[in-house]
Amino acid sequence: MRERTDDSSGNGASINDPLLTTPVARLMALAMGTDIRVFEMPAARSIGLAGLVGLGSDKNGEPQCMIGLSDDLDDDLRADVLAYGLAVLVGTPEILDESPDGILGISRERLPQADNGPGNLAWHMLQTCGRESPSTTFRLMVIQSDE
């Protein structure tokens, strides 16, 4: 397969960007391209969670989809959880209505691979990015406040 280096947009960028060599990098580019903010959250404050998915606001107060990833995830789990969060936001955003604040936790526990829904969409995204995963389906949880 020949590497494509031309760019029809005229800005001279390469299709095979060397910074997009890992599944995580490709998924981060997808998130950025769809205006989804991805941030790291301290593992000490997110016990039992691999991540968060939900609706927040940007610096101007406008609604913005967000995915938080625990800072202690290895690259494989980071890719799987990021793909799952993206799949929830684009495939089943109505599920966020189950939480009073529009934010759900993504458990570290992998569920059996789903044949449909966000877990299946996440699996297809990862396949496209070059990663084979045992399962891209995770439990979503309503997070209880400390109050």
Terminal residue distance: 57 Å
Structural class: alpha+beta
The string of secondary-structure elements, in order, is HEEEHEHE
Shape: globular
Could you give a short account of the major beta sheet? 5 strands, mixed
Number of strands: 5
Q: How large, in whole angstroms, is the Cα Rg?
A: 16 Å
Strand content: 15-25%
Question: What's the arrangement of strands in the largest beta sheet?
Answer: 1-3-2-4-5
**What is the helical fraction, as a range of percent?**
25-40%
| Average pLDDT level | 86
Q: List unreliable stretches of 5+ residues.
A: 1-15
Put simply, the count of helices is 3
What would you say this structure looks like, in words?
The radius of gyration is 16 Å and the shape is globular. The protein has helices at residues 23-33, 75-91, 117-128; strands spanning 37-41, 49-57, 63-70, 103-110, 138-142. The chain has a 5-stranded mixed sheet. Helix content is 27%, strand content 24%. It contains 3 helices and 5 strands; from the N terminus they run H-E-E-E-H-E-H-E. Strand 2 (49-57) and strand 3 (63-70) form a beta hairpin. With 147 residues, the chain is an alpha+beta fold.
Features of the shown structure:
about 150 residues; alpha+beta; 5-stranded mixed beta sheet; about 25% helix
